[in-house]
Amino acid sequence: MKWTASKIKALKGERKIAMLTAYDALTASLVDSADIPAVLVGDSLGMTVLGYDTTLPVSMEEMLHHTTAVARGVENALVIADMPFMSYQPSVEMGLENAGRFIKQAQADAVKIEGGVVRSALIEALVANGVPVLGHIGLTPQSIKETGGYKVQGKTSEQARKLMDDAMAVEQAGAFAIVLECVPAELGTAISSALTIPTIGIGAGAGCDGQVLVFTDLLGISGKPVPKFVKKYADLNALIIKALAAYKSEVESGSFPADEQTY
Predict the structure, then answer these.
(1) Phi and psi dihedrals of 134, rounded to 5?
(2) What is the pTM of this model?
(3) Total of domains in the chain
(4) What is the pLDDT at residue 103?
(5) What percent of the chain lies above the pLDDT cut of 90?
(6) Which of 24, 252, 261, 262 lies 20 to 30 Å from 88 when distance is taken between CA atoms?
(7) pLDDT exceeds 90 at position 149
(8) Are 190 and 3 in contact (CB under 8 A)?
(9) CB 187 within 8 A of CB 203
């Protein structure tokens, strides 16, 4: 069954929603094979794949390239393209044009944009023009220059009220779901209860309607420290390095290739 934005939206109150990032056809096919209904081509690829320190340098061309690869590797999951920094902030018109490129050129099924009330006009315009939108509030990595870094959001009552207003605005503008990143679990639960669309948490507690993690964090591939909200389901970094070291040793000793690898 091919997942659509409307089908994801309909899962609210029916079952929890699992979402993962993917950055190429191989990782996308693995996620799809696990029957995970939604794949996010996150601009986090700037840090996990391209070696940038933040997501800010990621370009439209880079995101289109990786989204196209992910779409080729997926049969059933909803493919959501993360719109990179300054691909939609300058104007609604620019956001419409670039979102259209993700749908037409990269074969994405939906786009994700960061921001609440300030993005409501853009979300409304995208939805009116046939582009499903995943919202994103709380810790928004494209705003770290303004927020002062990667910090938990919504800790004060004033901040919590603002995030609730942002969430309501995103829903009213027509988004099919919304990511809540790095907010207190109590606030994540409160927002989830107030909305009729699913909330996808990342460091927002178990009260959200679903969860999303970064592929490389979940599998322990990078070997680098991960945020508190990450659970490592495997430690592939150690296994990969062990396998590569074994290959090097066998090449140097002459034991690879053996007869079974020779024509």
Answers:
(1) -100, 120
(2) 0.97
(3) 2
(4) 98
(5) 97
(6) 24
(7) no
(8) no
(9) no
Same domain as 64, residue 39:
yes
241 and 162 inside one domain: no
Residue span of the structural domain in which 224 resides? 5-232
Which residues, in sequence order, are bridge partners of residue 18? Answer: 211
CB 129 within 8 A of CB 171: no
Residues 224 and 253 grouped into a single domain: no
pLDDT for 224 = 87
Residue 198, number of CB atoms within 10 A of its CB: 27
Residue-wise DSSP of 41-89? E-TTHHHHTS--SSSTT--HHHHHHHHHHHHHH-SSSEEEEEPPTTSSS
Known catalytic residues are 181
Same domain assignment for residues 201 and 149? yes
Tell me how far CA of residue 21 lies from CA of 18, 148, 168, 213, in angstroms: 11, 25, 25, 7
- The SS3 assignment for 90 reads coil
